[in-house]
Amino acid sequence: MSDDLTEMLAPEERPEEKKDVTDLLLHDILTGTLPAGTWLKQIDLERRYDCTRPEVRRALDRLSQRRLVQHNPNRGYQVYELDDQRTREISDIRVILETGVADRMIANVTPAAIAELRGLARQFDEMSFRGSIMEHYDANLAFHRALLLLAGNSELVDVVAEIRQRTVSAPVSQWRTRARIEQSAREHHLMVDALEARDLAELKRLIEIHIRQAPIRA
Amino acid sequence: MSDDLTEMLAPEERPEEKKDVTDLLLHDILTGTLPAGTWLKQIDLERRYDCTRPEVRRALDRLSQRRLVQHNPNRGYQVYELDDQRTREISDIRVILETGVADRMIANVTPAAIAELRGLARQFDEMSFRGSIMEHYDANLAFHRALLLLAGNSELVDVVAEIRQRTVSAPVSQWRTRARIEQSAREHHLMVDALEARDLAELKRLIEIHIRQAPIRA
DNA sequence: TTATCATAAATTGGTGCCAATTCTGGTTAC
DNA sequence: GTAACCAGAATTGGCACCAATTTATGATAA
After folding, report:
1. Which residues does residue A139 pair with via DSSP β-bridges, in sequence order?
2. How long is the CA A17 to C1' C5 vector, in angstroms?
3. Nearest one of B109, B85, B93 to B163, comparing CA atoms
4. CA–CA separation, A118 vs A191, rounded Å?
5. Average per-residue pLDDT for chain A
6. Tens of pLDDT along B3-32?
7. What distance in Å separates the CA atoms of residue A32 and residue B55, rounded to the nearest whole number?
8. Which residues touch strand D (CB under 7 A)?
9. Which residues contact A184 (CB under 8 A, 6 or more apart)?
10. pLDDT, tens digit (0-9, with 9 covering 90-100), for A64-108
11. What is the distance between the alpha carbons of residues B95 and B79, in angstroms, rounded to a whole number?
């Protein structure tokens, strides 16, 4: 647990420019590097991310506020174990929110936006072949972020990002099955198609199955 | 800013049993005791809530994560100034979420639930006459919480509570106009009526105008 | 009189240390 | 052989101090 992980960072992170410890820890949890149930000992994290004790404590406190890690007083923090019910509930919320603004996406869509989304969808495709798991993860996030931005509600983008982060654990492992990834990639393109055709019902349908079938974050 | 405020605490809080500082500060912001823009100096909060420096820092960090206070590095924290656009966006999100689960509320409603909601609505009414502003505030929260619980998605209850907290500031002042409060109280009862009659369209309509017309938290 | 600069006060934020609690391993009693 | 218990180690969490940055104040010069 205390081995050096800095090489696993995404290429765009220079080692010298220190990122926020909270983000580093968050990414390690999201990518499954630190699996559910893992005890997060302060001294280990301190060494692992080459940071100070207070920084570790702040990161742990923040993530426990977001219910990503569980805090056992006087015992420590551990990566939260996610139960199925919560996963389902969170998916439901995402479905309601994202299908709820589908009409606005269609209303605000422009040729430029279509082009951008197609580019992001293609980027996701590419990451399926080559690219680290984290790049893949980020590519997915970028696509969905751009899609949501079309709704014209920047607060919503934040809220969904936050909700999505609640459903960590059992994470990218599921992801790795080739079939699932390719299915997700196809759905990305289909969503852009529906958007371009201004087909509201189809877009809603796609969003729902896209969220539901890959329960975690597809 | 450094005067003692402990007497202003709600009656149910005993002075000796210390509550979490984060909650105390949160309530003072929500009730408008600390208006938007106020600088939250650590030493003042320390004295005001009779707590230690690290506790103050943790509270400030948590609230800045929730975007209730703004953090200016090396300068301090201040209560967040809310702009109109964000307020509108947050209302939109609430409308989407709460109308999005209206059908489930109706599906899950029971006579017992109706009775409970009526009781909570009446409690809100009563608080309009007598009762502190904070009791009033809490009564409103309790009603909406119970309503949302009907949807059968406990995660949603948390999410909405969190979102609602984002739109602090310009807070209970608006509230105080008698007309607005009485209108809200009426709508509470109307919502229970619609629920009892299982009238989905009407319930959705009520939820939307209820959220929109009292933009902050009605 | 006003603008600018230097100095001083105050506030934030980081570092290190220490107490309190919990966990581990070994020992003893039954 | 098993269970309970006790001592030692390790970890968490709070506390006090100190450095760095910023703001306020006052003096000096134009």
Report:
1. none
2. 35
3. B93
4. 10
5. 84
6. 333 333 333 333 444 578 999 999 888 878
7. 31
8. A 39-43, 53, 57, 71, 73-77; B 52-55, 74-75
9. A124, A140, A210, A214, A218
10. 999 899 999 999 999 988 778 888 999 999 999 999 999 999 999
11. 26
Contact B154 A92 (CB under 8 A): no
Q: What six digits make up the tokens of B98?
A: 């709460």
Residues B159, A163: C-beta atoms closer than 8 Å: yes
Q: What gap in Å lies between CA B83 and CA B80, rounded to an integer?
A: 9
CA dist A211 to A90, A110, A153, A214, B162, Å? Answer: 10, 24, 20, 6, 22
Tell me the C-alpha distance between A103 and B11, whole Å. Answer: 47
The answer to whether the CB of B89 falls within 8 A of the CB of A154 is yes
* pLDDT at residue A174 greater than cutoff 80: no
Is A113 a residue whose pLDDT tops 70?
yes
- Strand B39-40's sheet: what is its strand order? B39-40, B76-79, B69-72
Report whether B121 contacts B206 (CB < 8 A).
no
pLDDT by residue (tens digit) across B70-119? 999 999 999 998 778 888 999 999 999 999 999 999 999 999 999 999 99
Over B11-67, what HEC string results? CCCCCCCCCCHHHHHHHHHHCCCCCCCCEECHHHHHHHCCCCHHHHHHHHHHHHHCC
Is residue A148 within 8 A of residue A156, CB to CB? The reply is yes
The second-level CATH assignment, the architecture, of B6-79 is Orthogonal Bundle (1.10)
Taking a C-beta distance cutoff of 8 angstroms, is the pair A206, A213 a contact? Answer: no
Q: Give domain limits for chain B.
A: 6-79, 84-213
Dist. CA B79–CA A124, nearest whole Å: 40
The answer to whether the CB atoms of A100 and B101 lie below 8 A apart is: no
Strand C contact at CB of residue A100, distance < 7 A? no
Q: In this model, does residue A213 exceed pLDDT 80?
A: no
Chain B residue nearest residue A164, CA to CA: B159
Q: Which residue has the tokens 């080459």?
A: A50
pLDDT of residue B168: 60
Fold agreement between A6-79 and A84-213: no
The CATH superfamily holding the domain B84-213 is GntR ligand-binding domain-like (1.20.120.530)
